[in-house]
Design a protein that fits this description.
The complex is a heterodimer. Chain A is α/β, with parallel strands linked by helices. In chain A, α1 packs parallel to α9 and α4 packs parallel to α5. Chain A starts with 5 loop residues before the first strand and ends with a helix. Chain B folds into 2 domains: 146 residues, FAD/NAD(P)-binding domain, CATH 3.50.50; 137 residues, D-Amino Acid Oxidase, Chain A, domain 2. Helix content of chain B is 32%, strand content 25%. In chain B, the strands form 3 sheets. An 8-stranded mixed sheet of chain B has the order 5-6-4-11-12-13-10-14, with helices on both faces. Chain B has a 6-stranded mixed sheet with strand order 8-2-1-9-16-15. A two-stranded antiparallel sheet of chain B has the order 3-7. In chain B, a hairpin with a 6-residue loop joins β11 and β12. In chain B, α1 packs parallel to α8 and α3 crosses α8. The chains are: A alpha/beta, B alpha/beta. Chains A and B meet through α1 and α2 of A and β10 of B.
Chain lengths: 265, 337
């Protein structure tokens, strides 16, 4: 089988699991999780860690030493201006045009403010950023994000950190069908490996998650479980699964079995 | 044996105390003007090994913490052993289940159980976890008391407001307990910022620390007596000292308000931000090089772990003992091996 690689803004990646770097018991355990997940990309937040004058340098240099590609994010930003400023700082700190754009609009669900998201995406794309927008499964918003210059979309599975899995499989399937050639990544809400496998079976190109691994009892073991699930879901999708049906369809014919039994008697 | 301890935070004071008890001649040097003025000054003072396990701490934190619990309740009885209480808002009940799964040494309480322990929390929580063996102390009072006891020992001298270089000096052993200031000698040491505040109100009484679980920012409230409550603490991956943020205070105050609405009318009598010294695995280390012993990396577990490390330091110096749980270079690899 030829190499099944994912291309994000022209960067080819073998791994389809992107993991966050927050909330781990320690940086040492984070390092083990990255290895176990075989992740090639990790996402890092800067808004809060930067303090008054980029005080998070120690942690960021730890991340750089992991030797994986960094997708900085604007987690915690609630306005367009905040998100744009954070993205500009992220570009300098990590020397990358990649930015996972979050503009949070609601406190209980942490769901994106899609209006601010489209506006910020447009500003950043014009400024040369490669924007990975954290969005909902809304088709119209997706269209606008693509129009703003995004080449990747990251719809949520469920609210951030909720671990509920894919709340709206219909909506995610519709998004996939609507944009067959845009890399789509399920971002947020994944709780267990089966959720990740389901996203891949729906035809999503990758899965991004943080809490499900970071807060697991054994983060490294959970990271490996997710890596296997993402691979299984992807292989299952490529292998063209059967269609579900209502009635049994035996894998060996039943007609003639009586004769077999007779012959044996 | 002559021992020179540098740093009079909880690590240095505990070390000086244990070396003094072992009969050594101890000189304690601190660059600040008094004991416990570094990040120990802002500590919560919870001696809560089982709760830390619930928060995801390594099993060795529990073992060392239980040892320290005996120090603070028997050797230097400065802690109050009233246990601790863990609660969660109704919408975050799954956090309580997760916490309980990862630890031991607790009792499940219903609403009546909560009310019996903490009458002021009556009717506020349907479920809670009670850790009866845990204790808490007032870090400033505890360190002042340790220092006062040391002053009375004939074999101990304390010097404040004096800088010291760990690599010079004529002692048999130098114990480097400088915390985050020692990053010149320990390049892998990083800072983890924490913010806290102190509230004063006569409307709430708590007999023990209360932890409020939350998926993003768990918070604890430690009663300090006289109607004062320490609320802590944020955990931010940077090493910016002293800068208290609005967001940090919002989170801490929001959690305090969720524990009891009367905190809304409390007076804010102090806010603070400090930097915890931590190694990449967030576990403490005792390192020996020539005649210098470095005790560092307590992360958020200074009061919880310093006595256990101090006792080990004495056995290393006097008997040449070796303690793999805090002296191996990579504890993480040892455990998974």
């Amino acid at each position: 089988m030829e190499q099944d690689s994912l291309s994000l803004y022209g960067v080819a990646l073998a791994s389809r699991l992107i993991i966050g770097t927050a909330q781990y018991p320690s940086p040492a355990i984070l390092a083990k999780a990255i290895t176990a997940a075989k992740a090639e990309v990790v996402t890092v937040s800067l808004r809060r860690e930067s303090g008054a004058s980029r005080a998070g340098e120690n942690f960021w240099s730890l991340i750089r030493e992991f030797g994986v590609r960094v997708l900085p994010n604007t987690a915690g930003c609630r306005t367009v201006k905040e998100a744009v400023t954070t993205a500009q700082m992220a570009r300098e700190v990590f020397d990358t045009p990649w930015i996972k754009l979050e503009v949070i609009g609601e406190e209980d669900t942490l769901q994106p403010d899609v209006f601010g998201l489209v506006e910020a995406a447009s500003i950043l794309a014009r400024d040369g950023f490669h924007v990975f927008p954290y969005t909902t499964e809304d088709l119209v918003v997706a269209e606008k994000l693509l129009g703003a210059g995004c080449e990747v979309l990251m719809p949520w599975g469920a609210p951030i950190g909720s671990g509920r899995g894919l709340n709206n499989p219909y909506g995610l399937r519709a998004l996939r069908a609507h944009f067959p050639n845009v890399p789509l990544i399920v971002d947020a809400g994944i709780g267990t490996p089966s959720h990740a496998a389901t996203a891949m079976e729906l035809g999503y190109d990758a899965v991004l998650l943080n809490t499900a691994i970071a807060k697991a009892g054994d983060p490294a073991a959970m990271a490996r479980a997710f890596a296997l699930a993402v691979e299984a879901g992807r292989l299952g999708r490529l292998a063209d699964p059967i269609e579900p049906r209502d009635m049994a369809s035996p894998s060996t014919p039943v007609i003639g079995r009586a004769f077999t039994d007779l012959a044996r008697a | 044996m002559r021992i020179r301890v540098i740093g009079a935070g909880v690590a240095g004071l505990a070390a000086a105390f244990e070396f003094a008890r072992a009969g050594c001649e101890v000189l304690l040097i601190e660059r600040r003007e008094g004991p416990g003025l570094g990040c120990s000054h802002l500590a919560g003072g919870m001696i809560a090994p089982w709760c830390e396990a619930g928060e995801g701490a390594d099993p060795c934190v529990v073992d060392l913490g239980v040892e320290s619990l005996r120090f603070w309740t028997e050797t230097a009885p400065l802690a109050v052993a009233q246990g601790s209480l863990v609660v969660a808002p109704a919408r975050d009940q799954p956090e309580l289940a997760r916490f309980a799964r990862r630890t031991s040494g607790f009792q499940n309480l219903d609403a009546a159980g909560v009310a019996a322990l903490e009458p002021d929390l009556s009717g506020r929580f349907e479920q809670a976890l009670f850790f009866p063996q845990e204790a808490h102390l007032d870090p400033r009072a505890a360190l002042a008391s340790l220092a006062a006891r040391l002053v009375e020992c004939a074999n101990v001298a304390l010097r404040f407001g004096v800088d010291a270089d760990p690599l010079t000096g004529k002692a048999d052993w130098t114990i480097d307990c400088r915390g985050f200031d020692a990053r010149d000698a320990l390049p892998e040491l990083r800072g983890v910022k924490g913010e806290m505040l102190v509230l004063a109100t006569s409307e709430v009484t708590l007999a023990r620390p209360v932890r409020m679980l939350h998926p993003r920012h768990p918070v604890y409230i430690v009663p300090r007596g006289d109607g004062r409550f320490m609320i802590g603490a944020t955990m931010i991956e940077n090493d910016e000292p002293g800068r208290v943020t609005a967001r940090g205070m919002l989170e801490l105050l929001g959690a305090a308000y969720a524990v009891h609405p009367a905190f809304a009318e409390a007076e804010i009598i102090e806010t603070g931000a400090g930097v915890r010294p931590a190694f990449p695995d967030n576990l403490p280390r005792l390192r020996v090089k020539d005649r210098v012993m470095s005790i560092n990396g307590f992360y958020r577990h200074g009061f919880l772990l310093a006595p256990a490390l101090a006792r080990r330091a004495v056995e290393v110096a006097l008997q040449g003992a070796y303690f793999p749980e805090v002296m191996d270079a990579d504890q993480d690899q040892r455990r998974s091996a």
